[in-house]
Amino acid sequence: MRRRSLLLLPLLTACGAAPSRTAVPNSLRIPPILEPSTDGEFVLTMQAGRTEFQPGRPTPTWGINGSYLGPTIRVSRGDRVRMRVVNRLAETSTLHWHGIRLPARMDGGPHQMIEPGATWTPEWTVDQPAMTGWYHPHLHEHTAMHVYRGLAGLIVVDDANRTGLPGEYGVDDVPLILQDKKFEDGGQLEEGGVDRGTWGVLGEDALVNGTLNARFAVTTEAVRFRILNASNARVYRAGFTDGRRFHVVATDAGLLRQPAEVDRVKLSPGERAEIVVRFAPGEQVVLNRIGETARAAGDPEEDDFDLMTFVADPRLEPSPPMPAALGGPPAVPPPPGARVRTFRLSGSEINDRDMDMTRIDEVVPAGAHEIWEIVNESYAHNFHIHEVEFRILELNGAPPPAWQQGPKDTVFLPKGAKARLSVRFNTHVDPVAPYMYHCHILRHEDKGMMGQFVVVTPGTEDRVARTIEPGH
Ligand code: C2O
Ligand code: CU
Ligand code: CU
């Protein structure tokens, strides 16, 4: 039970609002692992439905193969993967594979639109180290609403590296998809704020894997959690109310070299962290978020709230000790003379421009290793680059804390912050189909805080058309 909820309860009941605050714990939903069809395809159907976040109060939502969120897709390095994405919604959407390295036409960005009733069948060969990625719509100007209604899911990449980390899905390897919501009196999601204001919607009811007031029964001494911030704007400084320390073992794009001990991890929208937490038999502990919302532009803020509760069995199965080395990919320093590109974030523009689907903003030679400098001249933003792995070289002039030195694809920039990134590009050459870079605060992305880059054969940069037709 949440301490603040108790205080607010009489007040809120009196004005008839926020029924969710009275709710009893619900056991944490674990998104099912999606089995491929007999044709070897992963079938993902985007559909409308109803979800009982609160018993007896169905909420209209969207989901993938279900009413809210989608299944977990699990693939291995070297696999040829084929998706069959079916749009059963009444609106056009797209499905983007965030963190997955693939050709731009398979990326599911704003250009790969799926009309109502249509099917999209991207395929690619998995060629990246183990990581936790995710999928979500990316329709230009409508991503915030589509994600808010429930379209998102995990895509987990495995590789041959045996880490010795807990790995039984749903038991001691558990996804935690964090989202904040606002519910209306009737139980509907409040959608009015999603496309308004500086941040869009900022709720105080936490869903974890689509579960309100989630409770997870811990059965092992150690549990690995794959945490994804799938919120529209919230930044989570997540940790346990008893202040216990835990280990970060992976960042967005893969494992660290060695575990990093912390008591909080800060994740902005789109970011992931894998952590390993130890539990004592019979104990109960709460995961919460404190301070530092996007609204406060990186400053501490009052609306701390609880995310979920863990209840450990009186007897726990033994877990392996924390490995000293995790086998994550080493950081490769940028070569001397690496090209530097600068991106200034101001208001909801990047380098004083709004997104234009017909404009190519950057042309990158295949296989390039560059330095991207992100300079935030305004309130909190973050910066996500499609189809790359980057490292944070510097945050405000200093190296980031150890746990943030792993492979990344999204970086948080509090008000006025500056980041220097070492970015390694792929070799999927396509001079016409672009990848995106953008702020992952979805209201900002929808307002146009996004740009496009193409990856081309080295030496052809000057010959590439800077204007394209939308819809590749
Ligand atoms: Cu999570 Cu451009 O996306
Ligand atoms: Cu992405
Ligand atoms: Cu932003």
From TrEMBL:
Gene3D superfamilies with a match to the protein in the record: Cupredoxins - blue copper proteins (2.60.40.420)
Superkingdom field: Bacteria
Signal peptide: 1-23
Domain Plastocyanin-like: 47-161, 213-279, 347-456
SUPFAM superfamilies hit by this protein: Cupredoxins
InterPro entries documented for this protein: Cu-oxidase-like_N (IPR011707), Cu-oxidase_2nd (IPR001117), Cu-oxidase_C (IPR011706), Cu-oxidase_fam (IPR045087), Cu_oxidase_Cu_BS (IPR002355), Cupredoxin (IPR008972)
Keywords, ordered alphabetically: Metal-binding, Oxidoreductase, Signal
One Pfam entry name: Cu-oxidase_2
Family statement: Belongs to the multicopper oxidase family.
Protein name (database record): Multicopper oxidase
